[in-house]
Write a structure and sequence with these properties.
mainly alpha, 2 domains, 58% helix, elongated
Length: 172
């Protein structure tokens, strides 16, 4: 369990002060902050600095949701990396076929986010990859190893999410 990052600590303190400014009964003193965090986490909190990364993230998200504050935009990739991320695995991405790039942690996080949106587990992903219409094709090795593989899986999962959203809308 890792400690809160300095960036999270600053964000939590700023958001809490915004919460205190907008809500009646939310004190700005230290004791009020610790009481508020203890109630939310359902465990004793003696300092924001002693929070774990996950606990801090939970508190930050709960304040954002309550105040309607959007999450900050993620940092953009450099131009050449963004181009490769968009093309790798597509028909017009032949230029990258001879030098495949290994899958990044950020690509795997996107896949995990899409799986959670679809309420799919690892077993559902495995069924998709092993199925006859696998986004990884007919190859024997059904592991996500390259950016191209990740892109194929991401595009398939986005298609499923779009289909589910359209099905839930119903007739217009």
């Amino acid at each position: 369990m890792s400690q809160i990052t300095p960036k999270q600590l600053t964000r939590l303190q700023v958001l809490y002060s915004q919460l205190a400014a907008h809500e009646l009964g939310v004190g700005t003193d230290r004791e009020s902050r610790m009481r508020w965090a203890t109630e939310r986490l359902r465990k004793p909190v003696t300092s924001f600095r002693n929070l774990s990364v996950d606990d801090a993230g939970y508190l930050i998200d709960s304040i954002r949701t309550h105040l309607g504050v959007k999450a900050p935009l993620k940092k953009r990739l450099p131009r050449d990396q963004a181009r490769r991320a968009g093309l790798d695995g597509r028909k017009d991405g032949i230029e990258y076929k001879n030098a495949p790039e290994m899958v990044r942690e950020s690509d795997l996080r996107v896949i995990q986010r899409l799986l959670s949106e679809l309420n799919w587990g690892e077993d559902s992903l495995r069924k998709l990859l092993d199925g006859g219409r696998s986004p990884l094709g007919k190859r024997a090795d059904k592991q996500i190893r390259t950016v191209s593989d990740a892109n194929h899986v991401i595009w398939a999962l986005k298609r499923f999410a779009r289909q589910r959203a359209n099905a839930n809308k119903g007739p217009a």
